[in-house]
Amino acid sequence: MRAALLIAPEKIEIGDVAAPVVAPTEVVIAPSRVGICGSDVSLFRGYRKAVLPLIPGHELVGRIVEVGSAVTGLAVGQRVVVEPNYPCGACRFCLSGRGSICPEKVSMGVTTAGALAELVAAPARFVWPVPDSISDEDAATIEPLAVAVHAVLESRASAGDTVAVMGCGAVGLLIAQVAVQQGMRVLAHDREAGKLAMAEALGAECPAGRNLAALWLDADVHTVFECAGAAGAVESAIASAPRGSQVILMGLGDKRVEIEPFRLVREGVRIGSSLIYDHPDDFARTIEMVALNALRPSAIVTHTLPFASAEKALFVASTGEAGKVHIAM
Fold first, then answer.
1. Contacts of 50 by beta carbon, 8 Å cutoff, 6+ apart
2. Going by C-beta distance under 8 Å and a sequence separation of 6 or more, which residues neighbour residue 45?
3. What's 58's DSSP letter?
């Protein structure tokens, strides 16, 4: 079969590889559309290490072409999406409902072959049918939307609250969409004017020219979602968070930051984090919200390129100027 192979940083080759052999508990899927994630970009640029060559990609929609002998409830021809992070299900984190931080989890396109190929195998228990009412464009964006849904639910912010989003990449934009749909006021912040325009189109406000601390205090911000990951953005989010609020770190920065514990303790500012989603509730909830037209994640898709241009698609996604980039298989 044909696959996009990451053979070196910033180098993708389209080549022939062996097709996956279905295991008893797996299905094999023919992807029709694949989204590019920030983790794909990190692998592509060489910031994140992986065993190469690697087939990247994990945000997909496609149809089942083969079903393992032990699989029930799924059939050849079904249109599906994949929950591409597979927690072990047996560790203390999985058993307490926190599979998102399972230390043994396996990730499609990172530790196993990914979706930028004619065929990809996935464990059946992480494969979700999607109704025909959901477009391919929306379906291929369900995975990052589940990240956003999980974060907003974890925040315990509710209708009438004001939240701030620092960094309007794909996840930041989707958090804005989810929060607006849930009846929250959203203040969005980013250095790119195009990203702010997308946030405004999703219902967020994009105030400029004011001190963050004063702005957020006046707005009575309940939660700050830090989605950029840059050390400066993290420090600014924490330093500017108003009394009694919380900061949820989502950006995967690897630089040390400075904080002032005295103010955090005295003013009751809490710092937490949110990573991907927990199996199975978050994916089920997200698919239902899209099926009910409560959310339209494809609103953040700005580029769709053909499979033959996979390398270009990853370059476009790495500029920081695009919204969500899709590859049509």
1. 6, 43, 110, 111
2. 9, 10, 318
3. -
Domains defined for the chain, CATH in brackets:
2-129+296-328 (3.90.180.10), 145-273 (3.40.50.720)
User: How far is residue 224's CA from residue 215's CA, in Å, rounded to a whole number?
Assistant: 12
Half-sphere exposure of 181 (CA within 13 A, CB side): 21
pTM: 0.96
Between β-strands 26-36 and 246-249, what pairing exists: parallel, antiparallel or unpaired?
unpaired
> What is the tens place of the pLDDT at every residue in 24-73?
999 999 999 999 999 999 999 999 888 999 999 999 999 999 999 999 99
- What Cα–Cα distance (Å) separates residue 153 from each residue in 96, 140, 146, 150, 278? 17, 22, 10, 5, 11
The rounded distance, in Å, linking the Cα atoms of 305 and 141 is: 15
Cα dihedral 205, 153, 178, 86 sign: positive
Kind plus residue range of the DSSP H or E element containing 192: none
Give the helix ranges, DSSP H, for the chain. 38-45, 92-95, 136-139, 142-155, 170-181, 193-201, 212-219, 231-240, 261-267, 281-291, 310-318
Q: DSSP of 74-109, one letter per residue? A: --TT-EEEE--EE--S-SHHHHTT-GGG-TT-EEBT
